[in-house]
Write a structure and sequence with these properties.
Elements lengths: L3 E7 L3 H12 L4 E5 L14 H6 L1 H20 L14 H25 L3 E4 L1 E8 L2 E7 L4 E10 L3 E3 L12 E2 L1 H4 L8 E5 L3 H12 L3 E5 L11 H14 L2 E3 L3 E8 L2 E7 L5 E6 L1 E4 L3 E3 L33 E3 L10 H15 L13 E3 L4 E6 L2 H7 L3 E7 L4 H6 L5 E7 L5 E8 L2 H13 L4 H6 L8 H11 L8
Parallel strand pairs: 1-2, 1-6, 2-3, 6-17, 8-15, 9-10, 9-15, 10-11
Antiparallel strand pairs: 4-5, 5-6, 7-16, 12-13, 13-14, 18-19, 19-22, 20-21, 21-22
């Protein structure tokens, strides 16, 4: 006899494992299916998805290591500290990253045991619907069929590959291969100036690679506020990233010597990039193949996403939900997590809500880039009257003491009501500072509200307060 569950989650990434935990907290009998081993030495499926195994967590570990090396090798002298002949052991750096990932995946397994969640080790797909609910077929170590009253699809996404450019994760790599180089390449090419391309390009530039980024779009970081994008571009070029915009990629050849990329630049002139390794970072596509959605009457849209409603993440099949990268909206781990919680609470009969305008975005370069809400170009396109307020980190004592005085905070508020419409940061610790803005926007705060809240001195958070004051009748106190 097959097992019966109240909730079966397909996929153990951020959206899936969080959904499983929240559903278990609410008293449901829960199972979660995962099949990807992500290079597990024993071949066991690993929880955490792309984010934990080959995305967010390992990339941040490498970013931290490379920042430490660059600071010691090039900036520590500003503090009166002398270090000669600093070197980097790339293999040890990669091993540290792998150790962090292992600890995190083990932590999720502990949480599953703590919450009495059944882990189904194998690939899950729909087999149909019967009297006991949906029939889920599992192919793998825990092969069999289980029944679920409710199903949450959280299968995530994978790197988009370009035609005629075979990714072997040796010479031509996507995010997975770029996280496990055995040595620093002398010349590194990156196709795509998005989040992943900039972050991984920054890692290897700090460790000594000559990095060239080729971007098809004519503008840099088009999703960002234009002022932030302009400042970030200036700083990254100053650091040594060679960023080429408006290019058209031609033939790509891999050989024993490396990789050759033919392209035309923004003027239409033919160019060629010779590099030791190439990272292809041109977005991601949803993992919806192999789910056998047809068995329950579901279809994906023309881009491969699963259609859902705007409020509960419900599909057109009763009791089946989808969250994270397989549905509309930004492909962000924290967005997937919030949707996982929402669905579990919807199944429990609660009335949760997500304001997608208040979901923050972060790029973990140095300086970091983060934003929440609308940017200036969006507000102008809407015809909405707004008040901008901006304050530089260069006028902040803590930033100067840290040697991290690049960038600024920009607050955009409604011209009449002073409600905060968007906050945009390029600077140190932007990923942490943006949380204050997200909280303020969730509570429909005015810029004056942030300005009147006492912030610790000296701290980077004061820059957020000063920017809010600057948006409130130009009341910045230190500028």
């Amino acid at each position: 006899m097959s097992q019966n569950f109240d909730v079966v989650v397909i996929g153990g990434g951020p959206g899936g494992y969080i959904a499983a935990i929240r559903a278990a907290q609410l008293g449901f009998k829960v199972a979660c299916a995962e099949s990807n081993p992500y290079d597990d030495p024993k071949g066991e499926p690993r929880l955490g998805g792309t984010c934990l195994n080959v995305g967010c967590i390992p990339s941040k570990a490498l970013l931290a290591s490379s920042e430490e090396f660059e600071n010691i090798a090039h900036h520590i002298g500003d503090h009166g500290i002398s270090v000669k002949d600093a070197s980097i052991d790339v293999k040890k750096m990669i091993a540290r990253k792998d150790d962090i990932v292992g600890k995190m995946t083990g932590g999720i397994q502990f949480l599953f045991r703590k919450n009495k969640i059944t882990l189904l080790r194998g690939h899950a797909s729909f087999a149909g619907k019967g009297a006991d609910g949906y029939q889920i077929k599992v192919d793998g170590k825990d092969a069999g069929t289980v029944n679920a009253k409710n199903v949450i699809i959280a299968t995530g996404s994978k790197a988009r590959h370009l035609p005629g450019m075979p990714v072997d994760n040796e010479l031509i790599c996507d995010n997975e291969g770029a996280l496990k180089f055995g040595a620093t390449p002398k010349k590194l090419g990156v196709i795509g100036a998005g989040v992943i391309g900039l972050e991984l390009g920054s890692v290897w530039r700090r460790l000594g690679a000559e990095v060239t980024i080729l971007e098809a779009l004519p503008s840099f970081l088009g999703a960002c506020d234009e002022g932030v994008a302009k400042e970030a571009h200036k700083l990254f070029v100053k650091q040594g990233l060679n960023i080429n915009l408006g290019v058209k990629i031609g033939e790509v050849k891999a050989s024993k010597k490396g990789v050759s990329v033919a392209y035309t630049d923004s003027t239409g002139a033919a160019q060629k990039l010779e590099c030791d390794r190439l990272i292809v970072s041109v977005g991601r596509v949803p993992n919806t193949q192999g789910l056998n959605l047809e068995a329950i009457g579901l279809k994906v849209d023309e881009r491969g996403f699963i259609p859902i409603d705007d409020h509960t993440c419900a599909t057109s099949a009763p009791g089946v939900y989808a969250v994270g990268d397989v549905v509309r909206g930004p492909m962000l781990a924290h967005k997937a997590e919030d949707e996982g919680v929402l669905v579990a609470e919807v199944i429990a009969g609660q009335k949760p809500h997500i304001d997608y305008n208040c979901i923050p975005w972060v790029i973990y370069t140095s300086p970091e880039i983060a934003w929440v809400g609308k940017n200036e170009q969006q507000l102008k396109a809407e015809g909405r009257a707004y008040k901008p307020g901006q304050f530089p980190f260069a006028a902040n004592g803590r930033a100067l003491g840290m040697g991290s005085a690049d960038g600024f905070v920009k607050v955009l508020a409604d011209a009449k009501t002073d409600e905060i419409l968007g906050v945009h940061i390029v600077g140190a610790a932007a990923s942490d500072l943006i949380a204050e803005a997200a909280v303020a926007m969730e509570f429909k705060a005015a810029a004056e509200d942030i300005g009147r809240v006492c912030h610790p001195h000296p701290s980077l958070s004061e820059v957020v307060r000063e920017a809010a004051l600057a948006a409130t009748d130009k009341r910045a106190l230190n500028m």
